[in-house]
Amino acid sequence: MKLHRDEITVDESLVVSLLERQRPEWARLPLAPAGAGTDNVMYRLGDELVVRLPRTAAVNDALRKERYWLPRLAPLLPHAVPEPVHSGAPTRAYPLGWSVYRWIDGEEPGPGTVRDWEAFGADLAEFVRELHGTALMGATPLDGLSWYRGGPLGACDSWVGDAFDACRALAHAATDAEAVRAGDADEGATLDLDALDLDALERLWRKALRLPGPTGPPGWLHGDLRPSNLLVREGALHAVIDFGALSIGFPDAEHAPLWDLPRAARESYRTALGVDEAAWERARAWAIAVGVSGYSHYRDSWPAFAAACRARLAAVLTDTAG
Questions:
Q1: Three-state SS letters, 7-18
Q2: Which of 8, 49, 253, 280 sits between 20 and 30 A of 26, alpha carbons compared?
Q3: For residue range 82-103, what is the model confidence (pLDDT) as tens digits?
Q4: Residue limits of the Aminoglycoside phosphotransferase domain (predicted)?
């Protein structure tokens, strides 16, 4: 499944060829797909390893960042994080760097894996608190550690507005298609994008833009704490993975993926961290921004991801409805 125009095709034969050249002792281990994100493709290697390969050159530096910083951060964090064990060199067949990590057993959080959502939210808050409070160890945003989600909301207004326009266009296109099938749609009927009130979401976004910005010194951010980057074992949070968005900035956007989790986890997390109302509204705005852009961008290329974005937006609306 290709998600980007400039994406490099990765399959099992390519991974085997890379291993044969650079780690021949691993080349005959069992190899199986282990999931993929918007930036990387992964293969489980034997019982103890996982290979991670960027989809495009644009994210090539993310793995280098992980290999340098994760060994330094891991001892300071309360839950497991990926352990790099090999830095793969580019080849003619695959012109990007790649990495091998220790495999971490666990499952994505969900109704069948999490025992207590309040405890899960508190555990995630503990991880975030420790990460955000960790000394920078001399790092600065200029060290490849700057990302838009650690900055101000206002800098994103243009593309968020475009994403709202794209969602509305998709809604109208779907309405027209439904009208053709039904043959009797009322004039002016609109599709609510699966019961989502886009106007209400945009009002929440605009409201947050008028708030004062975050204050205090910037700190470490994971950058993408959505459920697929969290691992559960024995009903509780066990590990946090995929630090490709590791950055230094303000924490508001770090809280946005809490709208991907049940309300009990979200409320427990907020209470444990003591997030004030303004910061929570900015976090909610980040959830909206990523939700509308993700839905409009990946609706056709990755429907499952678009569905997750749509569910996030629905959770925002449910929260505001009381």
A1: CCCCCHHHHHHH
A2: 8
A3: 999 999 999 999 999 999 999 9
A4: 32-286
